[in-house]
Amino acid sequence: MNRSAQPVLHYSLIILLVLALSAAADFSGRNGYGRIGFRGGYPISFGQPLASYGGFNFEEGEYYGLVNAALEGGIGFSDYLELTIAVNVEFAKWTFQPDLGDEVVYDSGTGSAVVGATAYFIKGDIRPYGRLDAGVSFHYGDDAQDAPGYIRSVGFGLGVGVGCQFVLGEVFYLEPYFHWRSHLNSKYDVEVDGIEFEPYEEDYEQMPMSLHAGLGFGFLF
């Protein structure tokens, strides 16, 4: 068998197994149910928003994600549709070499508060889903060497995700997931501590974005 086809076959078998098990299960929740959950994941792809900073040119750097986490709640209108509210945070680092000077490490983070809808595709205790959410997003960055300056940006945030909830018993669930999230403001403010410096605005090279995978858990009530 072609090696490139093996992952496709494996994923297809997993999907078929999930569908078969879901068809024989009854969702342990009920109309009007509530849900609270926690998620933690690792960014597997991270857009690099800063190719330069403060008007200075840098040699090519490395921008990489560290962790994604979320606290979320939901109100189910049926076995298939849920109103979802979430607070998300992501942390990353940018390591770069200025034209002159030592290597610099820049700490970066994105936080968002969103409201969205989660659609469950199958009724059952194994519930694959898709999610779309939108809200307010905040991006922040600061020099880890304690330089007197930082960047910040507030804008619109958008998220799209897929996953599967495995309901165990009446109230507990586990949830592997993939989620894409983007901060959709193309500009950021540069703030420098000190009254002699005026804040100014610059453009992102790319808007902050992440694709992450992780595991969540929570409770139904």
Name a few traits of the molecule.
1 helix; two-stranded antiparallel sheet; mainly beta; single chain; eight-stranded antiparallel barrel; elongated; 221 residues
Count of discrete alpha- or pi-helical segments spanning 4 or more residues:
1
Rg from Cα: 21 Å
Taking strands numbered 1, 2, ... along the chain, how are they ordered across the largest sheet?
Answer: 1-4-5-6-7-8-9-12
Order of helices and strands: HEEEEEEEEEEEE
Uncertain segments: 1-5, 18-29
- Overall strand count: 12
The major β-sheet equals: 8 strands, antiparallel, barrel
Mean of all residue-level pLDDT scores: 81
First and last CA, distance: 47 Å
Please identify the oligomeric state.
single chain
Task: Assign a percent range to the helix content.
Answer: under 10%
Strand composition percent: over 45%
Structural class: mainly beta
Mind explaining what this structure looks like?
The chain is mostly beta strands and 221 residues long. The protein contains 1 helix and 12 strands, in the order H-E-E-E-E-E-E-E-E-E-E-E-E. The protein has one helix at residues 6-23; strands spanning 34-46, 52-53, 56-57, 62-76, 81-96, 104-120, 126-143, 149-168, 172-183, 187-192, 200-203, 209-220. It has an 8-stranded antiparallel barrel. A two-stranded antiparallel ribbon has the order 2-3. Strand 5 (81-96) and strand 6 (104-120) form a beta hairpin. The protein is elongated, with a radius of gyration of 21 Å. The relative contact order is 0.21.
